[in-house]
Structures are given as structure tokens and as C-alpha cells.
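quick one, two chains, predict together pls
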Amino acid sequence: MKKTALLYVVLIAAFLAYVVQHVYTNSESERSFRSEELRGELGENYVMVTFLSGIEYWKSCLKGFEDAAEALNVSIEYRGATQYDAREQITVLEQIIAKKPAGIAISALDPTSLTGVIDKAVDAGIPVVLFDSGAPGSKAYSFLGTDNYAAGEAAADRMADLLGGKGKVAVVTLPSQQNHDERTQGFREAVAQSYPGMRVVAVEDDKGDAMVAKDLTEKLLDKYPDLAGVFVTEAAGGKGAGEAAGELEREEKLRVIAFDTDKDTLDMIREGSISATIAQGTWNMGYWSLQYLFHLHHDLTIPSPAASGDVSPLPVGVDTGISVVTPENVDDYYAK
Amino acid sequence: MKKTALLYVVLIAAFLAYVVQHVYTNSESERSFRSEELRGELGENYVMVTFLSGIEYWKSCLKGFEDAAEALNVSIEYRGATQYDAREQITVLEQIIAKKPAGIAISALDPTSLTGVIDKAVDAGIPVVLFDSGAPGSKAYSFLGTDNYAAGEAAADRMADLLGGKGKVAVVTLPSQQNHDERTQGFREAVAQSYPGMRVVAVEDDKGDAMVAKDLTEKLLDKYPDLAGVFVTEAAGGKGAGEAAGELEREEKLRVIAFDTDKDTLDMIREGSISATIAQGTWNMGYWSLQYLFHLHHDLTIPSPAASGDVSPLPVGVDTGISVVTPENVDDYYAK
């Protein structure tokens, strides 16, 4: 009976020790959950908003946003205006603000139309960052996107490599949009400054249409039979120029450098009708947008988002970088 | 006796249940530790390296680095050349590379001297990012720092506010350093473009010395008795110009705008001898440097750091932003 009583006491003691340890472990992990780890809370929802929501370009931005959400244990939602229509994007944003999400990442259709609705979100305490296309006059905390001038320079360097530094080249672009103008300018100035054997003979407007781009390229070839290369600053036109190059019966290939990494463009790099394309850091735009929103929502920055004055709690501008896609590395760029 | 046996069984069952639950909980948290959360591993060590390691300026960069280390559960180390000596900084870096840390964040003493040793680290598989002062020709993955031209513009805007948009102003700077030249240029061009009532009458070299800056300011006041403001682009000189302004016996105050947030500068803003100073996003430089290194070390980026070509796994440039410190918000800037 004494032995049983002793066992009894030992078991009760062990039991109590486990209970105490368990409770202690739980409160410890809860504390570190709140103060140390980068882990979201239940129902913490972030929204990505674009225009032209159907286009392939946003997929990689969204993948970055999703990957960050998984790493940070939060949920996300993707919304977009289906058309190229500022009023539609404003309406979508109004609906999102009404639901008070933990943060919004926006690609602005143009630099000015969304300023009012962005400021409304920030004034309501909802963190906003901009990616891909900015709205410089708004209260958004940060802009993450491509340095388009540098992208144009990189295209010029690649073109010079392909042409051995000499020949006539043309640009096919969308002159009405700032990002495309910057790409054209970077290309032109790099050619003028670094490649005396090359000359930009024309800058044409393809209105973002592959058929127009094909037609324009053929007309350029009529006018300049020795045209050596075309830099197309937007995704749709690259395919058109690539088709024209593929159909060209001439000893010297027409070199086409395109923009972005749509599947069609990558396929044409494999086939050889497009020589290279400029890939943007789209995954990084989405990934770091969510990281920034998370840090704002959880007040993890110094200075705090709530600090007085025109203080910046986050980096204000992020150049997400570009890379040049060639036949050698094209396989790395197909969506995984 | 039956009752005792029953209690016995219940206790043993409860005990076993706790053991099982405890083991299960542990293996669960270990799984998520590895695959989902942004949590480092035992012995994962990152190093921050600067020059002039004793100066106050780095403290907030290091605080950001430390805060990110706590959030990501990794350890860090701070190393620096004590002098303004490139060879010393290279030697320190060689020692660090030999220890194979998980990543290195470097503020480069000048844009070119460290390129070889930075590339050596990257080639050895050690991620490197640069903060505050870059080395553009190196293989470092990213640069995080101030847009100094924009900082100069912000100083001009603040000066115009203080002076009601009119009066003679001077710049005291370090003309030999690129970041200081950019601040001066941003200030001059903003005044020329936006404030026709203001005029930059002099740009002087204080050699980074408070006494020289005080002396220069007094001489400028002799030459231009109606001098209304001085913008000092570096931390030491701001105090000198502030002292000259404090001792000036004149009805109209001489307005001094300084740079950085040393304790002395903040004290003089409280006292009124300095009107404002430009705060850099130093915490953000350190915080996001460590985040970037962590993401490179754990191969969390798309594209991967190991991808072919000149692919950029991270944003290549980060503008960490600035803010203007005034008597109204100066209390927020004392180190916490």
C-alpha cells in the first residue's frame, strides 16, 4: 500500500509538472507569436488591385503576393478592373475600402486618376503601396516597379551585342504612356552615347496591337531594306515584329528585342524569331508589396506609420530590376 | 482499492495523452518552422560592415538590422573599419568572408575600392547587399540608400517655407563626395526652378569639420549681411553653422538646415539655432538589408539567386526615403 501511494504521488507530481510546462510553453509561444515572428492573424486579408485584370502580365506579380502571404500566414484576394477604365478601377477600390482590408497593393492605371481614392484608403487607416504603375501625388507609402529608362538602356546593350555594334535600328512603342516613353528614351540615349556604329532611324506607334506592329515592321523594312534591329517596348507588339522577322526572306536576320515574358514571346525566342526580351521583376513587385503592407499593418517600422510629419516609414521607391531573356536562359522564364 | 485503481488508470491515461500531444505539437511546429515561416536556423549569422565604425550615424542602421534579425530568428554581428581607410575595410571583409557567414551588408567607403572583395564574397556563394553607400560595378545583389538629389530638393522646399520663398542662401558641403554633390545639385536646381525669389550665392567646402563650417558661415555673413539661410549637407558642419546662427545678433534669424539626426543636431533644433534637418531612412536600410540577405540565403526569391544569366533575384535599388525634422516632430527622432 505504501508503494502504491508513492507511485501515486510521483504520477501526480509528473502530471502537474507537465501541465505547468504545457501552459508555460503555450504562453511563451503566444508571446513570441505576437512580438517576434512575422506571422499574421486570423482573418488578416490583403488585396491586390490592377487594371486589365485578364492579362498575363499580372500573374507573376500575383504569384509574388501569394508567396509572401504564405510566408507571413495571411490571406489575400485579387481584384481588378476588367477594362482599361479609370472609373471602373476607382469603383473596385471603393468597394474594397468599405471592407477595411489589412492593406491594398495597387497598380494605377494612370498617374493621377486614382489619387483621391488612394488617399481615402490611407486616411481610413488602410496601408496602400503602389506597384508597376505609380501615382506619385498620392499618400501611398511606397512604389515598387521597373526603372524603365534603365530597361531601354539594357535593350540597347543587347541589340549592340547582337549586331556587333553596327546597323540601323527602329523602336516600336506606345508614345502616349510614360513608362514606354522612358524605355524609348533610354534606348535612344544609350545608342547615341555608346554605339557610334548604330543609328535609330525611326520611332513608331503600334497602339499596343500585334497586327499594327507587324505591319509597321514590314513598312520599315520596305523603307530601310538593311534595317538590322527593332526594339518593341510593349508585349503585344513584340509578337507582331517577331512574325515579320520570321517571315523575312533575307540573308541577315532582323533582330527583334521585345518586352515582358508572355508565353508567346518566350515561344518565339525558342523558335528564333525574337532574339531577346526584357523581363521585369514582377514577382518581386508582388512579394515585397505584401511584405511592406504587412509591416505597416503590424506597425513594425521605424518610424511608425503613425509618426507625425512627412515621415516615411518604408522605402519610398523600389527599383525591382530587369533581366534580359535570351535563347540560353528562356527556359527559366516559363511560369512554374 | 477499486477506486484507487480507477484513479490510477485515469491518471496514467491523462499522462499518456499529454505526452502524445506534447510530442505531436513539437513535430508540427518543427515542420512549419522549416517550410513556411520566415525563421532562421541555429548558427545562421549575418554581418554588417561599415567604415568609420564609431560614428553615431550607423546606430540606427544597425538597429534596423537587429530588429530584422529578431523577427527572423537569426544572429548578427557588426564589424567596421575604424578609420576612413579602404584597405582597412577590405581587410575586415577578407576576415569575414573566411568565416562564411550567411550574408553581408556593406556600406562601401567609396564606389570602386571594394568591388574586388565584394565579388569574391558573391563568387564564394555569400550573399552581399550594399546600403547607404554603393559600389555600382560590383556583383552585390542590391543597393539600399537615400536619393540624395531628392534630399537636396526637400531641403530647398523647407528653406523656401522658412523664408517665405525669398532671400539669399548658401550651401556648405563636401564637394569631393558624390552623395554630397547630389544633395547640393538637388538644392540648387530646386531653388532655380521653383523659387525665383531665392538665390544661391555661395557653395563652400567645410571638409566635414564643425569649426570650419562655423568659420565659413561667419565669413559668409560678413560678405552677405542679409544672408537668410544655409543648407549644410553633412552632419558635422550643421552644428558649426547652427552655432554661428545662434550667436548672430540680428533681427532676422539665420535659418540653418542640417543633415542627419545626431543628438547634437536634434538638441539644436529644440533650442532653435538649427531650423530643420534631413533624416535619412537608416533603420529601413538596415532592416531591409537583412531581409534581402535572408531571402537570398534561403533561396526564397523568384528568380532564384542561382538562376542563369544576368537575372536579378531581388530589387536592385531601394530608395529608403528621407524626412524633414522640425521643432514640431524632433522628439520622435531621439534614439529609443
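Residues 24-35 of chain A have pLDDT under 50 and may be disordered.
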